[in-house]
Amino acid sequence: MHLNCSNLLKNYLVRREAIFIGILLLFVLPLANAQQKEQQEEYSFVDKWDSEGSEKGQLKGPHSIDVDSNNGLVYVADSGNNRVQKFSADGQFIAAWGTEGSGNGQFKNLHDVTVDPSGKFVYTLELGNNHRVQKFSADGVFISKWAYEETGGKESYKDPHQIAIDSLGNVYLPDKDGSTVLKFDSNGNFITRWGSNGTEDGQFNTPHGVAIDPQNNVFVTDMDNSRIQEFNSDGVFLLKWGSQGSDNGQFSKVTPGIDVDSSRYVYVIDKEEANAQKFDNNGKFITKWGSEGDDDGQFTKPEDIAVDSKTGNVYITDTGNSRVQVFSINN
Fold it and tell me: Which tens digit of pLDDT belongs to each residue from 139-159?
């Protein structure tokens, strides 16, 4: 009788242990698989638009790029040719506008091009003597312009390098020399500004790139602080991540380009490290790709990045190689 009880107890303990292990595996295996899947996320080279020159569809030192995901269109600031070019998502030339000059619809030192979320309007930003924002229709018809660098008021800016538009049509400019972000309405009327020089939350040291997520939160590349900062649309600090270095999730002090897709994944160009990095909306590193060079998938002084939220394709201006490269995620 004693032996039977002992055997029953052993069998019970074995069964209980097996049940416990089985329950544990139900939770652990999916988590492990998810982590493995996340770690395996990679982007592969798909295409390049690398015809250098000044003819239609050719590029010379393209500086900025943006995607109208609604209509499958890509806009490129073809800086060396003082024009904006419009392509299909697969690189077929559609239209171009702009010549060198200071008149309406002309450009000098064209630095950025951005399409608003509706796809109806295209904004450009120039540096140097013109130092202005211009607004166009999606077909390149000039609508308006504004520049506030000489007024000395709250709406003044010194050296903005990128522009972003929220879902309400508001325009955001990070001012590198002013260490602030300025917000205007779609007609150039000043709304607010935030930031100052420093390293604390909400302060900047050479803010450059800017992108808006579907919730109208504002992401800024704070270059000399080697980090990304996130704010709400009124400039309230929400989040930061990054540090100086070349490891995953770190940045050099030259991170000009940033974009956020419809799922709120954040993509950042590191010009000095010649790579692109992807993060979730909490700043968690997901993957990176690229290296210095002129082969497919390599970059020389890349400047900007844009994501087609419908296809997931990523477009990068490989400025030093006078081309655009296209990447897609491996399934």
Answer: 999 999 998 776 667 888 888
